[in-house]
Write a structure and sequence with these properties.
Layout (H helix, E strand, L loop, with lengths): L10 H4 L2 H26 L13 H9 L11 E3 L5 H7 L3 H9 L32 H16 L5 E6 L6 H10 L8 E7 L2 E2 L2 E2 H4 L17 E5 L3 H18 L3 E6 L20 H11 L5 H23 L29
Parallel strand pairs: 1-2, 2-3, 3-7, 6-7
Antiparallel strand pairs: 4-5
Bound molecules: thiamine diphosphate.
The site of thiamine diphosphate has 14 residues, from strand 2 and strand 4.
Length: 344
């Protein structure tokens, strides 16, 4: 793997230090949330855990950079199941993810019916996250076409893992995004954490970098960056987003990250000794003189407290009732030929 970094020592100075404290705060909130979800899965509160501890350094700057809202003039997000840092960066509250983990009726994303970290937020163009890997690269083509036709500033953003790039949906996205007749404004992201469940990426992928697929298309930029560094990530995201928004053409960005608790609860969800992006960021912030250690420690206390309080609230909330099974399944104005409540 070769990181294509462009070193700009002025990066830390060119951004308000308060911004990096905000990034740190949301990274910590995301980690506190994910560690709570893991505890919930281990104590039988919820059926399954999958999530993004280790991806915070890339995801939080991305979430903070989204043009957020509904409709074609805003960004559409086709995300995978490790994107908690993105939606928390966009301002989603931790309590809603805890609700989906416990599968309670108050879960706004799926009414207690989907796995945790499978949000759906229509008001922010966050399409439902699915557990089938890589299909999001196919749906991204649809909003990409709509936004190419509409013009304006809104773009489509899709992310997924390294292993999934071996599947056809990823390549369909590259081909459709680069059609000369209608190039698509899609920021195509691959988060490379080095594994597909338990299969090492290096055993399966002969390409040097996944971003090298961009070279197949004469005009498509592609880069591989250190997704464990929030400053490098923010810089690369800004560059890529500016290109896609202005040029209305695709960009392939690969972020190399850690995977700190393995694949999911199915593989045990135990901490593994890979580089921790939050620890490294804290070292950087203090050594650059951008933050004091006490300020950073306070972020851990405040966010842990917020997550604990949200968890206590969710524990009192009701589970869905059996009678609710047909709610939110069919659209309101449906053809009479479609099945009705109680029918099939
Ligand atoms: C279409 C499909 N095939 C297989 C699976 C089983 N599966 C779930 S996660 C996973 C590995 C995904 O690895 P990667 O794309 O690298 O993403 P990561 O989980 O590492 O973020 C697989 C094969 C699936 N969910 N969907």
């Amino acid at each position: 793997m070769q990181l294509q970094e462009r070193r700009e020592p002025s990066m830390a100075d060119s951004v308000d230090p308060q911004f990096w404290l905000l990034v740190h705060d949301i990274m910590v909130r995301t980690r506190c949330l994910e560690e709570r979800l893991i505890k919930m899965s281990k104590s039988g509160e919820g059926y399954f855990w999958i999530g993004g501890p280790g991806e915070e350094a890339f995801n939080v700057p991305l979430g903070l950079s989204i043009k957020k809202g509904a409709g074609l003039e805003n960004d559409y997000l086709h995300l995978h199941y490790r994107s908690s840092g993105i939606i928390l960066g966009m301002g989603a509250p931790v309590i809603d993810t805890i609700r989906q983990m416990r599968a309670v009726a108050t879960d706004p994303y799926s009414k207690g019916r989907n796995f945790v970290n499978h949000p759906s937020i229509p008001a922010w163009n966050v399409l439902p996250v699915y557990p089938t890997i890589e299909t999001q690269y196919a749906t991204a083509i649809g909003t990409g076409i709509a936004q190419a036709r509409a013009g304006g500033q809104g773009i489509t953003i899709v992310n997924g893992g390294d292993a999934g790039t071996a599947e056809g949906d990823f390549h369909s996205c590259l081909v459709w995004a680069n059609r000369p007749i209608l190039p698509l404004p899609i920021l195509i992201i691959v988060v490379n954490n080095g594994y597909g469940i338990s299969t090492p990426m290096r055993d399966q992928h002969g390409e040097r970098n996944i971003s090298d697929w961009a070279k197949t298309f004469p005009n498509m930029p592609g880069r591989t960056i250190d997704g464990n560094d929030p400053m490098a990530s923010y810089r690369a995201i800004q560059e890529a987003m500016t290109y896609v928004r202005k040029e209305r053409k695709p960009y392939l960005l690969e972020a190399v990250t850690s995977r700190l608790y393995g694949h999911s609860s199915s593989s045990g969800a135990n901490r593994v000794p890979e580089p921790d992006c939050i620890k490294a960021f804290e070292e950087k912030l203090t050594s650059l003189g951008l933050a004091k250690r006490e300020r950073l420690e306070m972020a851990w206390h405040t966010n842990q407290d917020e997550v604990d309080k949200a968890h206590q609230i969710v524990k009192q909330e009701p589970f869905p009732k059996a009678d609710d099974i047909w709610e939110h399944v069919f659209a309101e104005k449906i053809s009479p030929s479609y099945p009705r409540k109680g029918g099939s």
